[in-house]
DNA sequence: GATTTTGTAACAAGACAAGTGACATGAGCC
DNA sequence: GGCTCATGTCACTTGTCTTGTTACAAAATC
């Protein structure tokens, strides 16, 4: 568990969901992600609250896509997850009294803010459909038998 | 301890060291950083190994700057610390078999690689001297009495 | 009413920086 | 030589955050 992999996992799931008609249960999704149904529900909750997916209980229930992949950017998913911390590094003190430390924090914060802005801009410029298309291209390029994913 | 604050702390220390003639002991530095001498020695070890600072034992010992601040960029310090993980987010699986997951990872990795490159480029373009200069400017702008830092 | 499936709380695990105590090593001072 | 100061390093704990897991209530379908 070195990284926060929620964004990666949700993108993975959403594209798979688009390729299936029926609702996917948390258990099916969990198997696909090599994880636990509770983790799935926990992570998908944000997407549901933002209206990207719908969840239904009972027989035949599970998770379904609400929006087409073409109307969801990677940034949308990131935001729906609650905008997790991007960086693992940061200042020792957010409100330091020491002017030296303030200057250091300013310099670091400037650079990090730019990098974060670039990252989010990039995420906002890519739709899930584009990633799905890249996958389709690979799929046809290779033999279909080479494709394996527990879904 | 939300973040890895080693870079921030080391920059802070190095600038302070430049403003003092004598060697600074780990204990003095620890007080300045509100931390522990062992943490200081542990973190400074990388800087010492890279030749940016020198440590001496015994009476009058402690830490001294080897290079002028003008010859150290923020990137140098980052590298000396062992290039810690920049991002808190990442893929769920580094070598996934699933082609969808591969496509997702590629898209994320591209964006993150760009953002990391920008960040490191920015860090490489700023010397510690420039941060020190910014501090000096603030110091003269405000009354000297407003400056307080336990060093 | 039984079964399926989500929703959620509560808690353990794993990772990693940071905090802490103990002790050996080496350098200077008397 | 012996004392003191200071680093070097090991071992262990703490704090924080995502994940993993168990348990159980709530709702929808059969």
TrEMBL record, chains A, B:
InterPro entries: Tscrpt_reg_Rrf2, WH-like_DNA-bd_sf, WH_DNA-bd_sf
GO terms of molecular function: DNA-binding transcription factor activity
Gene Ontology annotations for the cellular component aspect, listed alphabetically: cytosol
Pfam families reported for this sequence: Rrf2
UniProt protein name: Transcriptional regulator
């Amino acid at each position: 568990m070195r990284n926060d992999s929620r964004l990666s996992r949700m993108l993975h799931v959403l594209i798979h969901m688009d390729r299936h008609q029926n609702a996917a249960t948390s258990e099916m999704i969990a198997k696909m992600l090599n994880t636990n149904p509770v983790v799935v529900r926990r992570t998908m909750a944000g997407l549901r609250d933002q209206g990207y997916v719908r969840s239904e209980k009972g027989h035949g229930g599970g998770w379904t896509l609400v929006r087409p992949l073409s109307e969801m950017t990677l940034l949308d998913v990131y935001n729906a997850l609650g905008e997790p911390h991007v960086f693992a590094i940061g200042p020792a003190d957010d409100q330091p009294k020491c002017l030296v430390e303030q200057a250091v924090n300013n310099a670091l914060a400037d650079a990090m803010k730019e990098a974060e802005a670039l990252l989010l801009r990039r995420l906002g410029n890519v739709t899930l459909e584009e990633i799905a298309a890249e996958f389709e291209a690979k799929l046809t390029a290779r033999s279909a038998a080479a494709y394996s994913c527990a879904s």
